[in-house]
Amino acid sequence: MLFRESPEKFWNLIASKYAASPIADIAAYEKKIAKLKSYLSPTDHLLDIGCGTGTQCDDLASNVKQVTGIDISGKLLAIAEQRRGERKIDNVEFIQTTVFDARFEPGSFDVVTAFYVLHFFEDIDAAFGRIHGLLRPDGLFILETACLGEKGKITGKFVRLGGKLGFLPLINLLTTRQIEQALEQAGFGIVDKTKFSESNDEYTLIARKLK
Ligand SMILES: C[S@@+](CC[C@H](N)C(=O)[O-])C[C@H]1O[C@@H](n2cnc3c(N)ncnc32)[C@H](O)[C@@H]1O
């Protein structure tokens, strides 16, 4: 099956397995959620891009007014909706769409989050430009991204080749430096950069819309 043109098919196919896999480092995850909550306000509308099973949406919901989780995978969103219901959270909605959905109005979000999804965007500048446009002045963009451009060249190249051949979704071999530069270029200032877990290489970046 070729996923290059329809990556949602990949995520639908692995949805049950993905949903069943536990968070790798619970202590680090809880530390991260606690820190992110300290940046949120009860009046905030938060957009989570590539929300998957909605874990972060649900975990951050108590500190904001509204969460909108978006994802391309209908199957992952169905699991997200079920989990949201089980936790009796009523200020989270899930929509099957992308960040470029024209229904999202400029300046309409206070916070945008993107956990482990931005490496699936081939044009990171276009994505950051769109996110910048969706945020209100001074709004926050919180991101955590697989930086396969940093890791062993063979792993990254292998994964990207799999994407080019259509066996995997196409993955952009990003580096932390590249992400930081693209953020600055899009009009963000980085206000925090933390590596919560020793078991992976990724940083959680908190960036503020500057202009
Ligand atoms: C590695 S999972 C991360 C899920 C969740 N953010 C988390 O941290 O557990 C990547 C998610 O991004 C979604 N995704 C991939 N490309 C996307 C796109 N262009 N727009 C929105 N979601 C996308 C996938 O369906 C999947 O749910």
Describe this structure in words.
By secondary structure, the chain is α/β, with parallel strands linked by helices. It is built from seven helices and seven strands. The chain has a single domain, classed as Rossmann fold (3-Layer(aba) Sandwich). Helix content is 38%, strand content 22%. It has a seven-stranded mixed sheet with strand order 3-2-1-4-5-7-6, with helices on both faces. Strand 1 (45-49), helix 3 (55-60) and strand 2 (66-71) form a beta-alpha-beta unit. Helix 5 packs across helix 7 (176-186). The model has no long low-confidence stretch (mean pLDDT 94). The site of S-adenosylmethionine (SAM) has 17 residues, from helix 1 and strand 2. S-adenosylmethionine binds next to helix 1 and strand 2.
Distance between the termini: 44 Å
Q: Gyration radius, to the nearest Å?
A: 16 Å
Reading off the top of the CATH hierarchy, the class is best stated as Alpha Beta
What structural category arises from helix and sheet content?
alpha/beta
Kindly give the count of domains: 1
Helicity level: 25-40%
> CATH topology, which one?
Rossmann fold
Give the biggest beta sheet. 7 strands, mixed
Mean pLDDT: 94
Number of strands: 7
* Poorly predicted segments: none
Report the CATH superfamily.
Vaccinia Virus protein VP39
The proportion of strand residues reads 15-25%
CATH architecture: 3-Layer(aba) Sandwich
Question: H/E order of the elements?
Answer: HHEHEHEEHEHHEE
Shape: globular
Strand order of the largest sheet: 3-2-1-4-5-7-6
* Number of helical regions: 7
Bound molecules: S-adenosylmethionine
What is the quaternary state of this protein? Answer: single chain
